[in-house]
Amino acid sequence: MNARHTAAPSTDLDHQREAIAGLGHELRALVDATVRTVTPADVLHRVTDEVRRLTSQLTGRRRTRTEIPHVDEFPGGIRMFSPVTGPGNPLAPPVRVTPDGDGVTGHCTLGIAHEGPPGYVHGGMSAMLLDELMGWACSAAGTPAMTVSLQLRYHGPVPVETPLRVHARVTGTEARKVFVTGSITTEADGDRQLVTAEAVFVAPDPERARALFPER
Amino acid sequence: MNARHTAAPSTDLDHQREAIAGLGHELRALVDATVRTVTPADVLHRVTDEVRRLTSQLTGRRRTRTEIPHVDEFPGGIRMFSPVTGPGNPLAPPVRVTPDGDGVTGHCTLGIAHEGPPGYVHGGMSAMLLDELMGWACSAAGTPAMTVSLQLRYHGPVPVETPLRVHARVTGTEARKVFVTGSITTEADGDRQLVTAEAVFVAPDPERARALFPER
């Protein structure tokens, strides 16, 4: 009885996460079509009306500003709606993060929706990828922490619609400070660093951690 | 006759831009509902199917990777699909940029879709806002340029669902280098800088500019 009680919600949770990821995936395709299409205004107006109708179908309760989604494991686990890694967030590429020998590696391909100069990724988006991966590197090293200082160097433009690799690793710690480096390359040319980053993260003291990361 | 010829496309262009901005606005609302809703999986599946159907309605030609949208003025003008300022890009808040006494100021409110720590803006999103505004500051100063180095300092968390002000200004130039500073505050407390940035931008040499910014 207890076992069934434990198993059932887990399966429900998996189904819910799959449904959320499925919607995120299709919305990403709609966003891509929206920023690329050369469609007459009357078609855009009709699609706009239908989008408004769809939004009204997502009825029911909406979570409040600081509420952790019930499908998440927080802190330190699944975040379905992260703007970088969340499969349920249409803004996220999403980046798939895997541990590697000396840190973490993220894999993603960015679309035209993330474009700065024509054909290339917005410089701020590269910052977002690196900040996120460097945070994962801190957690992977056992010292979850927050960015206090981030230095980015842009060596070459990062192409859109091209598989990318983002690497980050902790290089040292000093009291509550964690020092981290990161880089972005294409998957095809892993030796040519297009953007590099150095950051200082700080593990929040317990009081601040409670304020920033409220318990579920 | 010539005058009418000139006026007609301009009006068409305005209508097209309005339609693009309208769709961007409604998609932003759908994205917000998607990342906030606590909706059963069956409803999410139904909405997913409808989103897929909508994407298929945005038929016709899709612009290619480096093609400038015909609704844009580029370089140096309107960019309808910018991921930061573009009203037609569902990923953009969008930021409204206005010149001020000594640089440029951007106004925006970020939603939960841009969340890092619960209730607060993702640190990378703050970087994206600052990188974008610092680029505008370069253009406003008559020296359009690209980021080569960006240093961010996070002094305090930036709240979501709160009107924000992003300020950037050029502090000096040296040959093709442009030095820029920037900051993020809330609209309510303009004295308390939550994130500050210093950057070096470089005006591309003509050959590189042609490669990065192809003529229409």
From TrEMBL, chains A, B:
Matching Gene3D superfamilies: Hotdog Thioesterase
Keyword terms: Apoptosis, Cell membrane, Cell projection, Cytoplasm, Fatty acid metabolism, Hydrolase, Lipid metabolism, Membrane, Transit peptide
A single GO molecular function term of this UniProt record: hydrolase activity
Leading EC class: hydrolase
Residue stretches making up the Thioesterase domain: 119-189
Listed EC numbers: 3.1.2.2
Enzymatic reactions: tetradecanoyl-CoA + H2O = tetradecanoate + CoA + H(+); decanoyl-CoA + H2O = decanoate + CoA + H(+); hexadecanoyl-CoA + H2O = hexadecanoate + CoA + H(+); (5Z,8Z,11Z,14Z)-eicosatetraenoyl-CoA + H2O = (5Z,8Z,11Z,14Z)-eicosatetraenoate + CoA + H(+)
InterPro entries on file: HotDog_dom_sf, THEM4/THEM5_acyl-CoA_thioest, Thioestr_dom
Membrane topology, as annotated: Peripheral membrane protein
SUPFAM superfamilies attached to this UniProt entry: Thioesterase/thiol ester dehydrase-isomerase (SSF54637)
Cellular location(s): Cell projection, Ruffle membrane; Cytoplasm; Membrane
Lineage: superkingdom: Bacteria
Family statement: Belongs to the THEM4/THEM5 thioesterase family.
Protein name as catalogued: Acyl-coenzyme A thioesterase THEM4
Organism, scientific name: Streptomyces justiciae
